[in-house]
Amino acid sequence: MEKIIFHPFAPPVSTELYFGEGVLSALNPDGKKFLIADQGLKELYATDLAKRIGAELLTIPSGERAKSQETAIHLMEQLFQLGADRESTLIGLGGGAATDLIGFVASIYMRGLPLILIPTTLLGAVDAVIGGKTAIDTSFGKNLIGTLYHPQAIFIDLNLFQTLPEKERLNGMAEILKMGLIYDRSLWAKESSPALILKAIRAKISIIEQDAKDHSLRRILNFGHTIAHALETVSGYAMDHGEAVALGSLVESHLSRTLGYLSDNDFNEIERVLSCFPLKLPKNYSRSKLFEAMKHDKKRGGGAPRFVLIDRIGHAIAFDGAYCRPVSPSELEPSLDWMEGQWSK
Amino acid sequence: MEKIIFHPFAPPVSTELYFGEGVLSALNPDGKKFLIADQGLKELYATDLAKRIGAELLTIPSGERAKSQETAIHLMEQLFQLGADRESTLIGLGGGAATDLIGFVASIYMRGLPLILIPTTLLGAVDAVIGGKTAIDTSFGKNLIGTLYHPQAIFIDLNLFQTLPEKERLNGMAEILKMGLIYDRSLWAKESSPALILKAIRAKISIIEQDAKDHSLRRILNFGHTIAHALETVSGYAMDHGEAVALGSLVESHLSRTLGYLSDNDFNEIERVLSCFPLKLPKNYSRSKLFEAMKHDKKRGGGAPRFVLIDRIGHAIAFDGAYCRPVSPSELEPSLDWMEGQWSK
User: What's the whole-number mean pLDDT along residues A31-58?
Assistant: First the structure.
């Protein structure tokens, strides 16, 4: 018998991120290119941008509906018909759902095309575009199909966020607050500002520069998300991701306290801040549906859902490098009782 | 404006390859596992193997039909239903088509599951399972959707090849001969033997250890494949990959000579050896269909198909690190005239 261990060589990946007002004017990629935009942005930005940079314009449905197998397949068929080849650049313009879907298509079309992402929401800027997670949803749950695929460049143009509705600002703030809870207390409970946004982006970059593959530290970014994803699934993706994350972060902070890791003081502070969000449970919520939805959580392993937990504001618990621990239904139930008591329909 | 360049950290990938008679008896993965097998192998190997290692058994259609979007989606739905999570191992058993499809599913299911591949054909062993290329086909062409995703382990058990039909042996030999033409003359025109198979595997490993991402040297593995993939597309995937590669290698050797790179002597030697294959054009072949099919070749760029070319037996031309060059229709036509003259229907 021969045993050979080999190491396929791939050059290190790097991403250039441009941040500021008007940075989009510097976007000018070479070669054949396709601008893929949320259809709601066609009139506002996409038509003009495509014209300026000489790109073919393709559109996808707005919001979470973009992240379907059907949209992915339809988009790839259009790219084949238009002759997109391995050197064509895909440029994704939209919120987190759009960039998740466009990143997924870029990663599997001819085994990977050059990709540039332009987030148009605060949530997309501080979370979805950084770190290479791409995804589509399935009837079994959110983000269950996807890849890790890093864009060549990211353009975060603050001018695009000026017209965002208040609700979108809250969606982004929910992720920034989550970063404040798990990693950097200086991101906790501050007013939104360009400096805060940039700091949140740098925090996420710092995490994925240590663990892009989601085998250890990166898992802390999932704080609040075990509950949030399950709530979104139960709602049929009608619930905003930011609202789900705010509620999920609060419930998982409650769980951190119940399990004896987090002080009452810190929990009360977290409750005070996150309660300012317009929190509510999905109309068709039931606990059995929530447990059913958690069955497909990607952090599962060995049968029980696993949760990221915090022991103070600004610090997730390492658990010997796993950065999450299994939580049994009976351990979780007090926090669900509390959640249902606070936000019953 | 802030410009940040960052480098997402991912640990280097490694693959363990076991080669020899009976090596499959050492396969014994931990945890939850799913054996996904070509349905034609269910009775022969798969049922027993699944039982021995305690895996759930799932089957996929035999041959190139496995590589469809429908098969990929159906397989993932079964995995969701059976509760496969991110720590579940997928074990793929079958020929190159099966392992391409199973690798693709493993790479996109929850952003990637541990993967073990067991090739059951010589072609799969020397080519498909090494180097992480996964793929499915589309109506626009072969392998147009896929990822680069490396298995944790590969088991090449020579006992599985003993019952292969002669046709399958020829399919594998076509790829070994191609390796002889582009990289290592000692693989050219030798009798099949375990030592030759292992040498071909080591040659492919050596190439992907230099360039797994297919940006330079790895492209030489596509010698013969620009024509081969187009012929397979024209045939509706009815043509065997090995036969297509033998014919494609011969035509692209002819092209290498016509363009002034390859000597008459070497071409005559190549013709003598490859003519022993049962070469024929697809029933519905036409030159316009061939050009249409080449439009979607992944090596395209800047409008013209690009070909890997050789300047002697055992050596592909570097072309300044591109390892391929654009070939215009008028440059290609003499070789197509010759092909059609030799193997008209």
Answer: 96
Q: Looking at the complex, does the CB of residue B155 fall below 8 Å from at least one CB of chain A? A: no
d(CA B313, CA B185): 6
Q: What is the distance, to the nearest Å, from the Cα of residue A137 to the centroid of all Cα atoms in its chain? A: 13
With the C-alpha atoms ordered B96, B101, B107, B109, is the resulting torsion angle positive or negative? negative
Q: Whole-number mean pLDDT of chain B? A: 94
State whether residue A329 sits within 8 Å of chain B by CB: no
Of A127, A136, A102, the residue nearest A183 (C-alpha) = A127
pLDDT of residue A301: 63
Does residue B345 carry a pLDDT above 60? no
Residue whose C-alpha is closest to residue B253's, from B142, B144, B137, B342: B342
Which of A106-120, A226-240, A329-343 comes out lowest in average pLDDT? A226-240
Q: How far apart are CA A291 and CA A307, in angstroms?
A: 14
Q: Which pLDDT score, from 0 to 100, does residue B301 have? A: 63
- % of chain B with per-residue pLDDT over 90: 85
Q: In the 8-state DSSP scheme, what is residue B107?
A: H
Q: Is ipTM > 0.90 here? A: yes
The whole-number average pLDDT for the span B315-328 is 96
Q: How far apart are CA B86 and CA B101, in angstroms?
A: 18
Structure-token match 């088991």, residue found: B155
Asked if A278 is an interface residue toward chain B (Cβ–Cβ < 8 A), one would say no
Which among B17, B109, B146 has CB closest to A111?
B146
* Cβ–Cβ below 8 Å for A6 and B209: yes
Which among B1, B3, B4 is the top mutation candidate for probing chain A, defined by the most A β-carbons within 10 Å of its own β-carbon?
B4
Q: Is A155 on the interface with B (CB under 8 A)?
A: no
